TrEMBL record:
Name this polypeptide is given: 28S rRNA (cytosine-C(5))-methyltransferase
Active site positions, chain numbering: C358 (nucleophile)
PROSITE patterns for this protein: SAM_MT_RSMB_NOP (PS51686)
GO molecular function per UniProt: RNA binding; rRNA (cytosine-C5-)-methyltransferase activity
Gene from which the chain derives: NSUN5
Binding site for S-adenosyl-L-methionine: C233, A234, A235, P236, G237, N238, K239, D257, D284, D304
Family statement: Belongs to the class I-like SAM-binding methyltransferase superfamily. RsmB/NOP family.
Region (Disordered), start-end ranges: 427-464
Coiled-coil parts of chain: none
Basic residues composition bias: residue spans: 447-456
Any single Pfam family the record assigns to this protein: NSUN5_fdxn-like
Keywords, alphabetical: Acetylation, Methyltransferase, Nucleus, Phosphoprotein, RNA-binding, rRNA processing, S-adenosyl-L-methionine, Transferase
């Protein structure tokens, strides 16, 4: 199916509330999922503006066979996006209406007294709309270095502004300007909405398009080159590729994921990124035996389990009015997350673990970490994660402020949570937890109900 047809079908599905944006995009037959996802999100973001332009230009009255969702996608790309790419028989039709549509866009801007397309968007509630989160780009140090990436973008006509000194500088970023992030090495920051999916440097694996908050887990785990690491819930693999870059491809990453489809995309991503130190396994992490000698040298674990995804910027744009996950769903997710965390803490050589989610719900974050710490009976403690980071864990238990939170409003990122757990000196691990041990909520899916769990994980959010 062609791009515009696929995007129109996804928009129609969303309007009919058939499924979430993510499932509709993955369920479409269009191969370039990222391109489709970006086009749908952007069209959706400008939905009200596009409706108004299409209506005042009389496009649907003049072209009776043009369906409204397709019209919206085509007009988005024609006026606000990258110009019509293909478009088949609709391309000449849109060309006939181009001048009228452009005139309506200009008229709308005059009426609203704005000069940029972006300013036509109604600000979302809250201080800083999610749509203003900058485009973060991690330089893949397995293939290049920040200096070369900066030179590359300068040659592409971007203007380099140096290392940003404050979030305000990043917030004001626009046009073809970019910064180095003030806190994270190897992270470039471009204006919100900068689309680099077709950029050759990205396509060659030199760059990873990854939100700043999602770069924190691997950075805070910080495994030195040569070490053995487990990435427990790894697909689609952005954090795994980050870990491999920190390891300089020396050592080993054991990466697990339940979802074979996501693992297949992950294998492509890792090859493109030049990762050679990773073993992928389509396995349930909960069934990986901690005492297996293969994992005898694993001192570092990254646990980024399925979550509600309530912090994801795309979800906030997609469902701005949504109430968030239901209490039942939260309970089920938190039970799985706690079980996975306890399992991870039972690996005998483990020294340091990072737990992260792209959820903003306390139930999936502070509550899970606190329950796991209590059940570890003093074997592990919370390390102070990145003290310079301004947004801290909710004050729900002693030391919760050692954890990190992230949000569009306070850190100009997606909503996120990170906790770093360290083994207390001289303490060895307790045995792996049994199902429903000591009162933690049970794994909602049950270890034998693998199919059902797979479905639930697929529906769960991802912090990729
Ligand atoms: C939030 S996503 C991980 C994102 C990934 N860390 C990244 O940065 O690209 C959660 C992943 O956990 C996987 N998953 C869920 N339950 C699992 C289990 N019991 N064992 C292994 N993987 C699991 C899901 O299939 C999903 O791909």
């Amino acid at each position: 199916m062609a791009l515009y047809g696929a995007a129109a079908a996804v928009l129609a599905g969303m309007e009919a509330r058939q499924a979430s944006l993510k499932s509709l995009v993955y369920g479409s037959r269009f191969q370039n999922v990222k391109q489709l996802y970006a086009l749908v999100c952007e069209t959706q973001r400008y939905s009200a503006v596009l409706d108004s332009i299409i209506d005042s230009a009389g496009l649907l009255k003049a072209e009776k066979k043009l369906r409204p969702h397709l019209a919206k996608v085509l007009v988005y790309d024609l006026l606000l996006g990258r110009g019509l790419r293909g478009g088949g028989r609709w391309k000449p039709v849109l060309a006939r209406h181009r001048a009228r549509l452009q005139a309506e866009l200009a008229r709308l801007k005059v009426r609203r007294r704005v000069s940029r397309n972006e300013d036509l968007l109604e600000p979302a509630s809250g201080a800083r709309p999610a749509s203003k989160v900058p485009r973060y780009v991690r330089v893949n140090t397995l293939k290049t270095c920040p200096g070369d990436a900066v030179d590359y973008f300068k040659r592409q006509g971007f203007s380099y502004q140096g290392r940003a000194s404050s979030p305000e500088e990043l917030q004001a970023l626009e046009g073809k300007r970019f910064f180095l992030d003030p806190l994270l090495p190897e992270l470039l920051v471009f204006p919100a909405g900068t689309d680099l999916h077709e950029n050759p440097f990205y396509r060659a694996g030199h760059l990873i398009l990854q939100d700043k908050a999602s770069c924190l887990p691997a950075m805070l785990l910080a495994p030195p080159p040569g070490s053995h690491v487990i990435d427990a819930c790894a697909a689609p693999g952005n954090k795994t590729s980050h870990l491999a870059a920190l390891l300089k491809n020396q050592g080993k990453i054991f990466a697990f994921d339940l979802d074979a489809g996501r693992l297949a995309s992950m294998a492509t991503l890792l090859t493109r990124a030049g990762v050679s130190c990773c073993e992928l396994a389509n396995e349930d992490f909960l069934s990986v035996p901690p005492t297996d000698p293969r994992y005898g040298r694993v001192q570092y674990i990254l646990l980024d389990p399925s979550c509600s995804g309530s912090g994801m910027v795309s979800r906030r744009l997609e469902e701005p009015e949504a109430d968030g996950p239901s209490p039942e769903r939260l309970r089920a997710l938190a039970a799985f997350q706690l079980k996975a965390l306890r399992h991870a803490l039972s690996f005998p050589a483990l020294q340091r673990l990072v737990y992260s989610t792209c959820s903003v719900c306390q139930e999936e974050n502070e509550d899970v970490v606190w329950a796991a710490l209590q059940q570890s009976a003093g074997t592990f403690r919370l390390a102070e994660a990145l003290p310079a980071w301004p947004h801290r864990g909710l004050d729900t238990f002693p030391d919760a402020a050692r954890c990190i939170r992230a949000s569009p409003e306070l850190t100009l990122t997606g909503g996120f949570f990170v906790a770093v757990l360290e083994r207390c000196e001289g303490r060895s691990s307790s045995p792996a937890p049994k199902d429903q041990a000591e009162g933690p909520p049970a794994n909602p899916q049950g270890t034998r109900k693998r199919k059902k769990r797979k479905k639930q994980q697929r529906e769960g959010g991802g912090s990729e």
